[in-house]
Amino acid sequence: MQCLSKRGSDSNLSREDRNMIPLDVFLYIGIIIFFAVFMEFVAWVTHKYVMHGFLWILHEDHHRPRSLGFQKNDLFAVFFSGIAILMFLLGNITGQFFITSIAIGVTLYGIGYVLFHDIMFHRRIRGIKLRASTKYFKRIVNAHAYHHQNSEKSKGTAFGFLYAPAKYNVN
User: Is 12 a domain residue?
Assistant: First the structure.
């Protein structure tokens, strides 16, 4: 692991140098941030071409009136969670923190998705209420509301979850 200080054994380093942050940490933080942001693109593509495409049969119930219970659509979250879990395992078994960093980024996106989509927008978890109190959250709530105005497979719009273009701003 390379540090922001001179390399060598710990006995050759001053106390200040031993407390320096390894450069690898910045790389891993960058990977985490990149994949947390990149997952919005993955989610948009998946939502538009898979959920509203050949796997509409699993997503359709999400566009119909329903109870708060499990939906077939939840299998998408299970799938992506499974990928993240496998990446955590692989990263830890092989000692490759690069893989673990990707898993952390994917998981952070998943947490954001649950907080916004399932809790704030659909209110699927009783007792937990999040309000859209900022312009940003009001915009993504408006975009998702616009998406749900149409419950047909091929007529969807606004496929993002945590990002929406400015045209969805609420005045």
Answer: no
Q: Is residue 10 part of a domain?
A: no
Helical (H) or strand (E) element with 127 = none
CB proximity list for 165: less than 8 A, separation 6 or greater: 143
Backbone angles phi, psi at 22, to 5 degrees: -60, 140
In a domain, 16, yes or no: no
> What pLDDT, in 10s, does the model give residues 55-112?
999 999 998 877 668 899 999 999 999 999 999 999 999 999 999 999 999 999 999 9
Q: Residue 147: inside a domain, yes or no?
A: yes
Residue 61 DSSP one-character state: G
The domain of 127 spans 22-168
Euclidean distance between CA atoms 161 and 171, whole angstroms = 20
Quote the number of domains for the chain.
1
Q: What is the pLDDT of residues 115-169, one digit of tens each?
A: 999 999 998 888 899 999 999 999 999 999 999 987 778 878 899 999 999 999 9
State whether residue 6 is helix, strand or coil: coil
Residue partners of 33: CB distance under 8 A and separation at least 6 = 105
Give Rg (Cα) of the chain: 21
Three-class secondary structure of residue 22 per DSSP: strand
